[in-house]
Design goal:
Blueprint: E1 19-28, E2 33-40, E3 46-53, H1 60-74, E4 86-89, E5 93-99, H2 106-110, H3 117-138, E6 140-141, E7 150-155, E8 158-163, E9 170-171, H4 193-196, H5 204-219, H6 238-241, H7 246-255, H8 266-270, H9 302-311, H10 314-324, H11 340-350, E10 354-355
Parallel strand pairs: 4-10
Antiparallel strand pairs: 1-2, 2-3, 3-5, 4-5, 6-9, 7-8
């Protein structure tokens, strides 16, 4: 059955058979990109439908960049990466459909507060897992790691982080294992020193940006100010950091190394002792300048996610999901369900994109 649309889906040749859009605009850049909320006819779940119009892209290079975003995203299937449900390129533009993130993003959640060390560590463990997967298994550098690109799903009271937006993603060159620098791409405040210097780079730029996020989540301020002032190694002001473990400071120091040769890889970050250590109760912060962290915000550790996925088969997980929410087997739900493994198993299934002709 064909469902007509007067909005974004009017640009589609195939997606209207599975999705319908609402009038609710989630995001509108005013230039090239519009995102609206929609619904999946098969599951009844809410989705996010994104359109990039070709006529608003100023060059063939920008059109190719949009095309590469679809290509790279369609390769990815990981619990900490937003699954691509469907995508299509038409004469008019590029359409993508992903699950609707009803719990917002990391920036919305944390831009006015700090996290406990444990919550920050667990959050960062998921980001490290996502970029390790991209670097080591797919040979891709995300290129725009920032809180706005970390969508959240709250499952049993704790957040799962999912990486999105692959518009600046680049493939590592086969011989040199790096990306040829052509221009500065990404977001100010999260650039690594080698990018600011106009040098070729690799996945360690993602690690640097992850370090900026981790530092800010715990300390409440940026590690370098202004953001391009990186003449010296990062420092930890005692009034903000005396209650934080030495392992956390070592992790941050190694993520934020000015020299990329001294900086950790994503895999090394994921295997750092801070990722699995028992974090003791924080000391009193009566003499600290920063307000106390919001202890009500909790994240799953990536090891909890991995262990939960191993404990259930996908068939069992799908059965749990079908009993707990308005969805069919093998589809991703945006609402909290009773078992973390069920959500993650269904996310993996949903990650296989349905492409238009």
């Amino acid at each position: 059955m064909q469902h007509k649309s007067n909005g974004l889906l009017s640009y589609s040749n195939a997606l209207t058979t599975r999705f319908e859009e609402s009038s609710l605009i989630i995001y509108n850049s005013g230039f090239t990109c519009t995102v609206v909320q929609g619904r999946d006819f098969v599951t009844g779940n809410k989705v996010a439908i994104k359109l990039v119009q070709k006529k608003k892209l100023v060059s063939d290079a920008e059109i190719e960049r949009a095309r590469c975003e679809l290509k790279f995203h369609s390769k990815l299937a990981n619990s900490n990466i937003v699954p691509l449900l469907a995508c299509e390129e038409t004469q008019e533009g590029f359409l993508t459909v992903t699950p609707y993130a009803s719990d917002g993003d990391l920036h919305e959640l944390t831009h006015c507060t700090t996290l406990t060390e444990e919550a920050a560590r667990n959050c960062i463990s998921q980001i490290a897992a996502a970029i390790t997967y991209m670097h080591d298994e797919k040979r891709l550098v995300h290129g725009d790691i920032k809180p706005h690109n970390m969508l959240l799903r709250k499952i049993n009271g704790k957040y799962v982080v999912q990486l999105c937006d692959f518009g600046f993603t680049e493939e590592l060159r086969p011989v040199t294992d790096d990306v040829l620098f052509t221009q500065l791409k990404g977001t100010s405040g999260y650039f690594a020193p080698e990018q600011l210097l106009g040098r070729n780079y690799d996945g360690k730029v993602d690690v640097f940006a992850m370090g900026v996020i981790a530092f800010t989540l715990i300390g409440g301020y940026e590690p370098f100010y202004p953001p391009d002032n990186m003449a010296e190694a990062v420092e930890f002001e005692p009034r903000y950091w005396r209650h934080i473990s030495n392992e956390a400071k070592d992790f941050l120091t190694r993520c934020l190394s000015i020299d990329p040769q001294q900086r950790m890889t994503a895999k090394e970050a994921l295997e750092h002792p801070w990722m699995t250590m028992q974090i003791s109760q924080q000391d009193s912060m009566e003499d600290a300048l920063a307000p106390p962290p919001d202890s009500s915000i909790e994240f799953w550790n990536v090891n909890d996610i991995i262990n939960n996925k191993r404990s259930e088969t996908k068939e069992e997980a799908s059965q749990i999901t079908a009993n707990d929410g308005p969805m069919k087997n093998g589809c991703f739900t945006p609402t909290p369900i009773s078992h973390l493994a069920a959500m993650l198993a269904c996310a993996d299934v949903a990650a296989g994109p349905q492409k238009g002709p």
